[in-house]
Amino acid sequence: MECVVQGIIETQHVEALEILLQGLCGVHRERLRIHELCLKSGPNLGLVASEVRLLCDLEQTEPTWTVRHIGGAMRGAGAEQLSVLVRTLAESKVSKNALRLFYSLGYKLDHELLRVGFAFHFQRGAQITVTVSSVNKMLKLHATDEAVPVTPGIQLVEVTAPASSENYTEVVAAVSSFCEYLAPLLHLSKPGVSTGVVPTAAAAAASLMSDGDEDGDGKEVVWHILLSCGLLQY
Amino acid sequence: MPIKWILHWQPNAGTTVNSQILAEVSQCAEGINGIKEGRWKATISFYRAMTREQANANEFPRDFLGISLAEQPGKYYLVLKGQRLVVEAESSIQMIMEKLQSYKTRVALNFEGNQYQLGDFQLRVGKVAPMQSESLRGIVMEMEYLPISSWEKSHQIMGEFFDLWQEALSKRSLPGHFVHIEPNFSEFGLSDQYTSQHTAVQYASIMAQMIATAQSVQPVRN
C-alpha cells in the first residue's frame, strides 16, 4: 500500500519549492529521469481489463527497470474523509527484457511518458518521498531524447509514503502534516482531484528566493515562510 | 556463479518413474562418497491465460513458466521458452501477476530433495511432485561445479563427471537414465558466464522434455 497526494506548480516556482524542501528535509535531492510505459491488456486477455506500468530509471549508469501495479484506492466513508489517497501498490525490479515479456503475454503499449525532475527521500513520521517533475511525451516511439512537455510551464508534485493496513492512519497523518508546510507554494490533494495552483505561490516563492538565506541551505527562509503562514510560532 | 547442469530422469520405454528409483539414485550419490548436506527446493508454476471466451486461449502463450530457485530466494524467473525469453524479477512479481488477473497458475510443481558435496562438485537429487501432493512425477538432478562459471570452459570436466556418475549408476541396473539437455543460451540473450537465468532456462527445457515424455506414455486427454 501507499499513501499519495499530488499537486501542480508553475515551473518558475520550482526553484523556490526546492529550497523549501531542502530546508525541511535536510537531505540532498536526487535527480530524476524516468521513462514510464503504461501497458494495457489486449481485448481478449483476462477476465477484466488490466494495466501495468514499466518504469526505467535513466539516471542510473546501468538503467534499471521496475514493474509497477497500482491497485484500487481504499473505499468507504472513512477513506473519503482522509485528505490522502490510500491505495494498493506492488512493485518488482525486473531485467531489461520485461517489455518484451508483457508484449508476448498480450499486453499493448497504451502510452509512454518521461518524467524529468528531482526527488527527496526522508523520514518524517513515515518514509516520505517528494517528487517534482515535468511530464513529457515522446513524439516518436521510445524517443526519450526528443520528449516534449505535456503541460509546458507546469510541473507535477507528488508526495508518497509506503504504508500497510496496520499503519496507514499514522502514515496519512504524517503525509498530511508534511503537506501543510508546502501549502504556501502548492496545494496537494488526492490524485484526480485537481485543485490548480495556489494564489500565494508567487509571494511565497519570492520570499524563499530573497536574500534572507545566509548560508544557502534555505533553512532561514523556510522558518520565515512557516512563521508568516502561521505554521510555526515563536 | 558456479555453473550447473540440470538433468532429468528418462524412464526406459514401457516403464515409469517410482520412489524406489529415487532412493537408489540417492544411495548412488552417497556411494560415490557424496556427503549429505541438507535439503534444496525449486518450484515451477505453469501459467495459463485467463480469457473471457475459451476460444481465445490459443492467442496466448501456453508455455509460460514461473520459477523460484533455492539459490536466489528473493528472485523469480519468468520463462517463455517458445519465445526464447527469460526475465529475472523480484519475488513480488508473483503478487503483480495475481493482481493483473490475466494469467493464473494452472499447475505448480515442487522439485525437492537432498544435496550432496563431492569435492568441488555438488549434487542435488530431487523428486518432482505437484504442490500439495506427494505423487512422484519425475526425478531431477542438479550437478554443480563450484570452481568454474564459464559454461564453455566447464564443458569437458562436467562431461567427464557425468560419465563417471552414469557409470556408477549403471551398476544398479535401473530402468532408465539421466539425460542432459543443453539449451542454446545465446538464443535467450545469455552469455557464457553462468547466472541463475541459465538455471531457469534449463528447468524450462527439462519441463518441456518431461511433458513430452509423459504424453508419449499416456494418451493425451482432451
TrEMBL record, chain A:
<dbReference type="GO" id="GO:0005634">
    <property type="term" value="C:nucleus"/>
</dbReference>
<comment type="similarity">
    <text>Belongs to the Mediator complex subunit 18 family.</text>
</comment>
<dbReference type="InterPro" id="IPR019095">
    <property type="entry name" value="Mediator_Med18"/>
</dbReference>
<protein>
    <submittedName>
        <fullName>Mediator of RNA polymerase II transcription subunit 18</fullName>
    </submittedName>
</protein>
<keyword id="KW-0804">Transcription</keyword>
<keyword id="KW-0805">Transcription regulation</keyword>
<keyword id="KW-0539">Nucleus</keyword>
From TrEMBL, chain B:
<dbReference type="InterPro" id="IPR013921">
    <property type="entry name" value="Mediator_Med20"/>
</dbReference>
<dbReference type="Pfam" id="PF08612">
    <property type="entry name" value="Med20"/>
</dbReference>
<comment type="subunit">
    <text>Component of the Mediator complex.</text>
</comment>
<keyword id="KW-0805">Transcription regulation</keyword>
<dbReference type="GO" id="GO:0032991">
    <property type="term" value="C:protein-containing complex"/>
</dbReference>
<dbReference type="GO" id="GO:0005634">
    <property type="term" value="C:nucleus"/>
</dbReference>
<keyword id="KW-0804">Transcription</keyword>
<keyword id="KW-0010">Activator</keyword>
<protein>
    <recommendedName>
        <fullName>Mediator of RNA polymerase II transcription subunit 20</fullName>
    </recommendedName>
</protein>
<keyword id="KW-0539">Nucleus</keyword>
<comment type="function">
    <text>Component of the Mediator complex, a coactivator involved in the regulated transcription of nearly all RNA polymerase II-dependent genes. Mediator functions as a bridge to convey information from gene-specific regulatory proteins to the basal RNA polymerase II transcription machinery. Mediator is recruited to promoters by direct interactions with regulatory proteins and serves as a scaffold for the assembly of a functional preinitiation complex with RNA polymerase II and the general transcription factors.</text>
</comment>
<comment type="similarity">
    <text>Belongs to the Mediator complex subunit 20 family.</text>
</comment>
